[in-house]
Design goal:
Blueprint lengths: L6 E5 L1 E2 L14 E2 L2 H8 L4 E5 L6 H10 L2 E4 L23 H17 L3 E4 L1 H9 L4 E2 L2 H4 L21 E5 L4 H6 L3 E4 L6 E2 L6 E6 L5 E6 L5 E4 L11 H21 L1
Helix pairs in contact: 3-4
């Protein structure tokens, strides 16, 4: 474990934004425990962040005190965030989560604070830097392979859906240590126009960009799959989380 255990902000989601949650329950925020376990196992201290989209001062205080930000998977992003009207196949959205995560992602980019986005988190990073999304790959992306292997469709979360090719010389390639890697796939949206300052670092067989990172030395990375599922079983995945946490630890040590 790192000498200094870094504090990592892990964002949450609105309970009622999730399919199947009945009306009438108290307003709550939740998050799958796999995400914070994945970083705790490699030395981080997780901090679950409520959706403070209407309290930027408090959100900024949290950002200033943490050493890195992890944005997990979740529901679709509101296309208003990248200037588009909703497509008929747009799924459930969580505007409070959008606003919270976009603010955190923008601050990470501006200050080069370590950031790791997983699935939806990669999309947040892309939109935060001025990029856009395909709202539904099957309807909008010509030649798309199947990407929506959702558990609600009967697929296991560890189902290996397809390969990605990881760009040589990228931070992701350094962390994963492989050129080709089989990933799980639980998304129907995808990265469209790539945001400013980002470079594509992994692509699927149909050419869809599956990972992006800042084009400099900062650890600001987003991947379209769900590596938290494999953290215990796959060393390449653990290396990704460890490099993220080590980058946050280095920043913490510098601040101290």
């Amino acid at each position: 474990m790192p000498r200094y255990r870094p504090l990592i902000a892990v964002t949450t989601q609105t309970l009622h934004a999730i399919d199947g949650i009945p009306e009438g329950l108290p307003q709550s925020v939740v998050m799958n425990q796999r995400y914070y376990y994945a970083i705790t196992l490699v030395g981080a201290v997780p901090l679950l962040v409520p959706l403070l989209d209407d309290d930027e001062d408090t959100l900024r205080e949290i950002f200033d005190r943490v050493d890195g930000v992890l944005v997990p998977g979740g529901v679709d992003m509101d296309p208003a965030a990248y200037g588009e009207a909703p497509h008929e196949r747009l799924g459930r959205i969580d505007p409070a989560r959008d606003r919270t995560e976009l603010a955190l992602a923008r601050w990470c980019v501006e200050e080069r604070k370590p950031f790791l986005g997983l699935c939806r988190g990669a999309q947040v990073l892309n939109v935060a830097t001025g990029g856009s999304l395909w709202q539904d790959l099957d309807a909008q992306y010509a030649g798309a392979i199947k990407h929506d292997y959702f558990p609600t469709y009967g697929f296991e979360r560890d189902h290996l859906a397809h390969e990605v090719t990881v760009a040589k010389g990228s931070r992701l390639r350094h962390a994963m240590e492989v050129e080709r890697y089989h990933v799980n796939s639980m998304h129907h949206q995808g990265l469209k126009a790539i945001g400013r300052g980002l470079v594509a670092t992994a692509v699927a067989p149909d050419g869809l960009v599956e990972a992006v990172e800042l084009d400099d030395d900062a650890f600001v990375v987003g991947v379209q799959w769900h590596p938290e599922v494999f953290e215990l079983t796959d060393p390449h995945t653990r290396h990704l989380f460890k490099e993220f946490v080590d980058a946050a630890a280095a920043q913490r040590a510098t601040r101290r």
